[in-house]
Amino acid sequence: GWVKPRLLLSHGAHHPSDVATQGLGKSWRLSPPFLVAFTHSSFFPFRKHALNCHRMKPALFSVLCEIKEKTVLSIRGIQEEDPPDAQLMRLDNMLLAEGVSGPEKRGRGGPMAVAATSGGCPNDNSIEHSDYRAKLSQIRQIYHSELEKYEQACSEFTTHVMNLLREQSRTRPISPKEIERMVNIIHGKFSTIQMQLKQSTCEAVMILRSRFLDARRKRRNFSKQATEVLNEYFYSHLSNPYPSEEAKEELAKKGGITVSQVSNWFGNKRIRYKKNMGKFQEEANIYAAKTAVDATNVVAQGNQANSPSTPNSGEWEPVKRPDGFFCL
DNA sequence: TAGTATGATTTAAC
DNA sequence: GTTAAATCATACTA
């Protein structure tokens, strides 16, 4: 199921101010002792106002910022910059291809189109198709809702931290650059969360897809209409039951199945008929009689008989395999 | 529930 | 590419 990505803040930070002090704390702790003295908690309640109004404050503040900046840069210099995230790009591409992100796909596309044309029973496939689409739409909805939530949370959190730091910058050496860096850190954290969301979404789509494709493999008997059409052709072309590509297309159209299903059916039928002609004799008689009745009706209507291109003259003479194996 | 029917897949030959 | 043949997996039926 769905695993809602959690807000991942490093070192157990649970509040914006924690992050603020955490981010700054490292460099702050590296500052010389005399600087720490100015910021000691017992110092503030009594001296805060005096400190802010002190004539040396601006000068001292800029020095503090400079020292801090150098310290931070020396630490950051050790750390490697993140490489461009290829995985994020892959996730984005997949979500776009699956129709989760970007404009919603309408009509036939992706695996749905395959199933909609390959199954034996079009109605059932329509149900599966709409089921797939409904579930994909659900995933899409959850994805966008979560994404929006995270973006809003990120924006609110950033504003909150920025305000907090601006407020603190009146009494602590926090430069605008530092605030910018903090904003970048927050955005980085939220990007990680977004990536987790994208990953979960991709997993959900893959699971849905595999389930759908498994369902597609389920065998369904052809409709009576399809079986009728196929059998009629088979028994009326018993001498050469190898429909041409055009004939296959026609049969597929009439039976509401695919051309490859027609090919499969004829492959199965030929081998099974050959193996046990006796079993199919009754069926053959029924279709022979049916064909005869149809032909009589056509003649009775005064039209030219629409007889099969290869009449049932008795022998199977496969053009490609003239081994007499299919003789009646 | 076992046996049978049937659509799909795989393999090998052409 | 098509096809036969074997096989698989599932649907159907008594």
Automatic annotation (TrEMBL):
<comment type="similarity">
    <text>Belongs to the TALE/PBX homeobox family.</text>
</comment>
<feature type="compositionally biased region" description="Basic and acidic residues">
    <location>
        <begin position="317"/>
        <end position="328"/>
    </location>
</feature>
<keyword id="KW-0238">DNA-binding</keyword>
<dbReference type="Pfam" id="PF03792">
    <property type="entry name" value="PBC"/>
</dbReference>
<dbReference type="InterPro" id="IPR050224">
    <property type="entry name" value="TALE_homeobox"/>
</dbReference>
<dbReference type="InterPro" id="IPR009057">
    <property type="entry name" value="Homeodomain-like_sf"/>
</dbReference>
<dbReference type="GO" id="GO:0003677">
    <property type="term" value="F:DNA binding"/>
</dbReference>
<keyword id="KW-0539">Nucleus</keyword>
<feature type="DNA-binding region" description="Homeobox">
    <location>
        <begin position="215"/>
        <end position="277"/>
    </location>
</feature>
<keyword id="KW-0804">Transcription</keyword>
<feature type="domain" description="PBC">
    <location>
        <begin position="19"/>
        <end position="214"/>
    </location>
</feature>
<feature type="domain" description="Homeobox">
    <location>
        <begin position="213"/>
        <end position="276"/>
    </location>
</feature>
<dbReference type="InterPro" id="IPR008422">
    <property type="entry name" value="KN_HD"/>
</dbReference>
<dbReference type="GO" id="GO:0003700">
    <property type="term" value="F:DNA-binding transcription factor activity"/>
</dbReference>
<dbReference type="GO" id="GO:0005634">
    <property type="term" value="C:nucleus"/>
</dbReference>
<feature type="region of interest" description="Disordered">
    <location>
        <begin position="302"/>
        <end position="328"/>
    </location>
</feature>
<feature type="compositionally biased region" description="Polar residues">
    <location>
        <begin position="302"/>
        <end position="313"/>
    </location>
</feature>
<dbReference type="InterPro" id="IPR005542">
    <property type="entry name" value="PBX_PBC_dom"/>
</dbReference>
<keyword id="KW-0805">Transcription regulation</keyword>
<dbReference type="InterPro" id="IPR001356">
    <property type="entry name" value="HD"/>
</dbReference>
<keyword id="KW-0371">Homeobox</keyword>
<protein>
    <submittedName>
        <fullName>PBX homeobox 4</fullName>
    </submittedName>
</protein>
<dbReference type="Pfam" id="PF05920">
    <property type="entry name" value="Homeobox_KN"/>
</dbReference>
